[in-house]
Design brief:
By secondary structure, the chain is of the alpha/beta class. Helix content is about 50%, strand content about 10%. Strands 4-5-6-1-7 form a five-stranded parallel β-sheet, sandwiched between helices. The chain has a two-stranded antiparallel ribbon with strand order 2-3. The longest helix has 20 residues.
């Protein structure tokens, strides 16, 4: 059996063990059961994908070699374009994994933990062919950001740049061929991923504004075509506002969300996950500057300040710790903590207030809800989804 099929072979089998596995990785966040479910699906999808993309199978081996030829022999010696020999991989199915989380809820940490769990770098996989053997490269994961302008071309450039950095290649400098744009750029990144036996594509920082640009329709479609054509899993880490944009793309929706949406919810004030996170934030910030014991008010006060968002809480603790260190103040009240922290969170407070207002209920303008789509809950944002309009005169729907 190929080594590529052994990803996660020693992985634990129940959710609690998966959370312990995530917690052991060198990234500061407290995993929950939902994080474990996400990791389970990622590992299962990557393993099943590698099983279907078996290089021991002559048919898929031939497909992989054709993908390499598509990249390197796209022009003949006279400069004429050769006929394309690309298409859907044998046994390929859409393997999208869609995670929805509000802003500052640890999407970057989750991506780093999954990347670390699957393995970094490139390795060689030896395949026996007749009496000889052939070495293939295998790239376990590739991590890119959603383009700030929402354009498909920018996504392709980000993919190629990340690929070059991981594989030590120089496709970004190619001045001709399918990687330079046009209708074949998506096929080109499919060929790159196939030739490198990519295990997982992670697309992070999918936020509301760039995901809702009109040109982003092609970008969503490109990701859907990528996983449908290659059978390689695509993990999308999006905010509720970005999820609303995908919900309006029926074709991409079926490819990128074939098994439903994983939602990372904000922990409640008294939950074990929030208490554990507060202990982590305290140890890594305030305790290092001389405050030895975590105050009794710390857990509740930090939740009220951050609205339960891990990223905001970590930022507040870091800002306060620097002030404590500067002014040598080993003791602090809840009021003093809030006064200092609010100064460091000046850019976050308007969005936190919007989320607090929305949580109380009420009637809001649709444009305002969309504007705060990264920070509001999924339930609040999805209400702005255009519905079927009812008119006075009946319309026959057949």
């Amino acid at each position: 059996m190929l080594e590529m099929t052994q990803i996660g072979r020693d992985a634990p089998r129940d959710l609690s063990q998966y959370t312990n596995t995530l917690a052991d990785l060198p990234y500061a966040f407290v995993p929950t059961l939902e994080h474990a479910r996400i990791l389970i699906e990622v590992v299962n999808q990557v393993r099943e994908s590698y099983f279907s993309r078996n290089l021991n199978c002559p048919g898929y081996r031939h497909y992989t070699m054709n993908a390499s030829e598509f990249l390197h022999r796209n022009f003949d010696r006279s400069g004429h374009r050769l006929n394309l020999r690309t298409g859907r991989a044998p046994l390929a199915i859409s393997r999208g994994i869609f995670v929805c989380a509000q802003a500052q809820m640890g999407r970057q940490r989750l991506a780093a933990a999954i990347e670390q769990f699957l393995g970094l770098g490139v390795q060689k996989v030896r395949v026996h062919v007749s009496s000889n053997f052939v070495d293939f490269l295998q790239l376990r994961s590739l991590r890119i950001c959603w383009p700030s302008d929402g354009r498909k071309r920018s996504l392709v450039k980000a993919f190629v740049s990340a690929f070059d950095a991981s594989m030590n290649t120089s496709y970004s400098g190619v001045c001709r061929g399918p990687l330079m744009g046009g209708e074949e750029d998506v096929l080109a990144i499919c060929a790159l991923a196939t030739a490198a036996n990519l295990g997982l594509l992670i697309v992070e920082r999918i936020n509301s504004t760039p995901a809702n640009f009109k040109v982003a329709m092609e970008t969503w479609d490109a990701l859907g075509v990528f996983t449908r054509t290659t059978g390689i899993p695509v993990l999308c880490l999006a905010t509720p506002g970005a999820a609303l944009a995908l919900a309006q793309q029926s074709g991409s929706l079926s490819d990128l969300v074939p098994n439903g949406v994983h939602r990372i919810k904000i922990p409640s004030k008294g939950s074990d996950a929030w208490k554990s996170s507060c202990e982590l934030f305290f140890r890594s910030s305030l305790k290092t500057v001389g405050i030895e014991v975590m105050p009794d008010w710390f857990v509740d006060t930090l939740w009220v300040l951050s609205r339960g968002r891990y990223g905001v809480a970590a930022k507040a603790c870091s800002y306060v710790a620097r002030n404590v260190q500067m002014f040598r103040k080993p003791k602090m009240t809840a009021e003093e903590f809030l006064n200092i922290a609010n100064k460091g969170l000046a850019l976050d407070i308007p969005f936190l207030k919007a989320d607090e207002l929305a949580s109380k209920g009420g009637t809001f303008r649709m444009s305002s809800v969309k504007k705060h789509g990264d920070w509001l809950s999924f339930e609040n944002v999805i209400t702005t989804m255009p519905g079927l309009q009812i008119v006075d005169e009946p319309i026959l729907v057949s």
